[in-house]
TrEMBL record:
<dbReference type="InterPro" id="IPR036879">
    <property type="entry name" value="TF_MADSbox_sf"/>
</dbReference>
<dbReference type="GO" id="GO:0000977">
    <property type="term" value="F:RNA polymerase II transcription regulatory region sequence-specific DNA binding"/>
</dbReference>
<keyword id="KW-0804">Transcription</keyword>
<dbReference type="GO" id="GO:0046983">
    <property type="term" value="F:protein dimerization activity"/>
</dbReference>
<keyword id="KW-0238">DNA-binding</keyword>
<dbReference type="InterPro" id="IPR050142">
    <property type="entry name" value="MADS-box/MEF2_TF"/>
</dbReference>
<dbReference type="InterPro" id="IPR033896">
    <property type="entry name" value="MEF2-like_N"/>
</dbReference>
<dbReference type="InterPro" id="IPR002100">
    <property type="entry name" value="TF_MADSbox"/>
</dbReference>
<feature type="coiled-coil region">
    <location>
        <begin position="77"/>
        <end position="104"/>
    </location>
</feature>
<keyword id="KW-0805">Transcription regulation</keyword>
<dbReference type="GO" id="GO:0045944">
    <property type="term" value="P:positive regulation of transcription by RNA polymerase II"/>
</dbReference>
<dbReference type="GO" id="GO:0003700">
    <property type="term" value="F:DNA-binding transcription factor activity"/>
</dbReference>
<feature type="domain" description="K-box">
    <location>
        <begin position="84"/>
        <end position="176"/>
    </location>
</feature>
<dbReference type="InterPro" id="IPR002487">
    <property type="entry name" value="TF_Kbox"/>
</dbReference>
<dbReference type="Pfam" id="PF00319">
    <property type="entry name" value="SRF-TF"/>
</dbReference>
<dbReference type="Pfam" id="PF01486">
    <property type="entry name" value="K-box"/>
</dbReference>
<protein>
    <recommendedName>
        <fullName>MADS-box protein</fullName>
    </recommendedName>
</protein>
Length: 221
């Protein structure tokens, strides 16, 4: 059964288009290889798929660059001259832009102002004022951010101090439960005794009518 004629137009389905590209590329490379072997020809094929991949076939006895050089030599043309001219023109434009930017920088620093007209001087002054306004606004935002950060840090430190103080008071109250004062007449050098069987501590009492009395009382229970 004869195959139907394929209509030559763009394949809309991306998958089918890529499959067709791969099949026909392989067939084209196969024919190029046969041409190279049978006819001793130098062949180079370069193609780019719709996916951006570069496909290349080059005869084993040469390179693509050698073929292009031979092509230019035989036809007496220069394939790179137009490209080189475009690159030179682009380079010239970039140099001019660079020179103008450097000049603007010097003018904003107060240099190279002699050649400016009154209108350009006024425009430059306006530009500098706008830049200063933007810088001041940015500076104020930075200062405000630092103030907010500092306030948060102070509040955090105050909260930590409050917790430490409350913890100290609670611990002090708990420790006070382990101590009590000796309730007796007279004056004592030490009036503290331990509860719950702590080490023995003695209190020296001074009687009102006696110079010094060595009456000892053991508080150790």
């Amino acid at each position: 059964m004869a195959r139907g004629k394929i209509q030559i137009k763009r394949i809309e389905n991306a998958t089918n288009r890529q499959v067709t590209f791969s099949k026909r590329r392989n067939g084209l490379f196969k024919k190029a290889q046969e041409l190279t072997v049978l006819c001793d020809a130098k062949v180079s094929i370069i193609m780019c798929s719709s996916t951006g991949k570069v496909q290349e076939y080059v005869s084993s006895s040469t390179t693509t660059k050698q073929l292009l050089d031979e092509y230019q030599r035989r036809l007496k043309i220069d394939l790179w001259s137009s490209q080189y001219e475009k690159m030179q023109e682009n380079l010239k434009n970039l140099k001019e832009v660079n020179i103008n930017l450097k000049k603007e920088i010097r003018q904003r620093l107060g240099e190279s102002l002699n050649d400016l007209s009154l209108k350009k001087l006024s425009d430059l002054e306006q530009d500098v004022d706008n830049c200063l306004r933007i810088i001041r606004e940015r500076k104020l935002r930075a200062i405000s951010g630092q103030i907010v950060t500092h306030k948060k840090k102070v509040r955090r430190e105050e909260e930590e101090n409050r917790k430490l103080r409350n913890g100290f008071i609670i611990n002090a109250k708990e420790e006070d439960q382990h101590y009590e004062l000796v309730d007796n007449e007279g004056h004592y050098d030490s009036v503290i005794r331990f509860q719950n069987g702590g080490p023995g501590i003695f209190a020296l009492r001074l009687q009102p009518n006696e110079p010094l009395s060595s009456q000892w009382m053991s508080i150790h229970e």
